Amino acid sequence: MYRALTVASSLLAVAQGQLVGTQQTETHPGMTWQQCTAKGSCTSKNGKVVIDANWRWLHTKTGLVTGQDISYTNCYTDNNWNTTLCTDNKACAANCAVDGADYTGTYGITASGNSLQLKFVTKGSYSTNIGSRTYMMRDDSTYEMFKLGPNVEFTFDVDLSNLPCGLNGALYFVSMDSDGGLKKYSTNKAGAKYGTGYCDAQCPRDLKFINGEGNVEGWTPSSNDPNAGVGGHGSCCAEMDIWEANSVSTAVTPHACSTIGQTRCDGDSCGGTYSGDRYAGLCDPDGCDYNSYRMGDKTFYGKGKTVDTSKKFTVVTQFIGTGDALEIKRFYVQGGKTIANSNSQIAGVDGNSITTKFCDQQKQVFGDTYTFKDKGGMANMAKALEGGMVLVMSLWDDHYSNMLWLDSTYPTDKDASVPGIGRGECETTSGVPADVESKSASASVTYSNIKLGPLNSTFG
């Protein structure tokens, strides 16, 4: 819901570059997933993983040669742009190149077979990296486009046993362009190969490049994140949060947008987390979420609970029907047992799946702003799902609200006993990024065994 991802750096700088550097070869880690046609009938696909361009070193397109050494000038350092190289958005795209990634050494990303591990803090030779955002690729220049309906299920295994309060191991889908905007924007020379083109329902304005141009004009460095800021543009698109979770709480949340595909927005009219008016944009920033704890069942999810987060388990999400009648249904599998999602224990809200009726009831009972319906609700979500979406696998901490919206009492000035306010057992003082980054540096999440197929084909 309130996504903000950052990377700390010293000698390396980070930005979504549009030209391509040559200092580090870009070799995408391989990761397999399975396409199923019926239960027990699945075919392995050889996917690849790419890290988002926002994490990469951004430097001058040509370096200064001294003897046998070549030195480059950073286009972006800490949370500031180089004002000589990046006098405006177009100049930045013309002067700056994004480079390849050392996935394991710099970013703590390790792919093996059908699994992907993301480490939270990685101390490399030149930098300290915080979190990551990665995408599944079909090949070295194209994102895999997953079609999630109608009547499709998506399944994966997750180990988040060492993700404490304040962290979010998120696996979700967004309506990005399959080539990262390479064809649409002539100044984008990097494309999906270098992780460009991100968008989501928060219309994020912390992206360094959008639509093949820099985001330097109007850039304001963050007051509490030494590596990030907010620019004059954002990047919007529909988002299906299959999984936002740590070992304490989890939520599944569709976010509808009035315009489904990647669209650039301007300033506070973007809405979302990064803007003064949260509800001003094309997209629904809150979504219609199902968090078992928030829906009244405090015994269902967590360490030692029905779904025991101290051990690996399987997450199954079904997309049943289409249009306004779309139903998003959740199961878990652990220890050989299939576990139905917990039922709502909130008076006036029925069921254990996300439907138009559930959203109508929940928003009314909780008194939440209902932008999900305003932006097209289940009908627009179904269009996005069926049109094909890019799979995102990430790990992040939250410089805007300390992840309290996921795992604590939120808003913090409300009584946790009021329906909809209690979202998890974490203290309201938890999740401060500086604390999480120092005390939980060794945290990690592992996603594995991804499957896509018709209903009831990927589990059981």
Largest sheet: 16 strands, mixed
The share of residues in helices is 10-25%
The mean pLDDT is 94
**What is the CATH topology classification name?**
1,4-Beta-D-Glucan Cellobiohydrolase I, Chain A
**Helical segment count:** 7
The count of DSSP E runs of length 2 or more, i.e. the number of strands, is 33
| CATH homology superfamily name | Glycoside hydrolase, family 7, domain
The residue ranges in which pLDDT falls below 50 over 5 or more consecutive positions are 1-17
GO biological process, one term: cellulose catabolic process
Protein name: Glucanase
Family: Belongs to the glycosyl hydrolase 7 (cellulase C) family.
Keywords: Carbohydrate metabolism, Cellulose degradation, Glycosidase, Hydrolase, Polysaccharide degradation, Signal
Account of the 3D structure:
Belongs to the glycosyl hydrolase 7 (cellulase C) family. GO terms for molecular function: cellulose 1,4-beta-cellobiosidase activity. The structure is a single chain. The chain is mainly beta and about 450 residues long. The chain has one domain (about 30-50, about 110-455): Glycoside hydrolase, family 7, domain (1,4-Beta-D-Glucan Cellobiohydrolase I, Chain A), CATH 2.70.100. The chain has seven helices and 33 strands. The strands form nine sheets. The protein has a 16-stranded mixed sheet that branches. The longest helix has 11 residues, at about 355-365. The two termini are about 30 Å apart. Mean pLDDT is about 95; it is low at about 1-15.
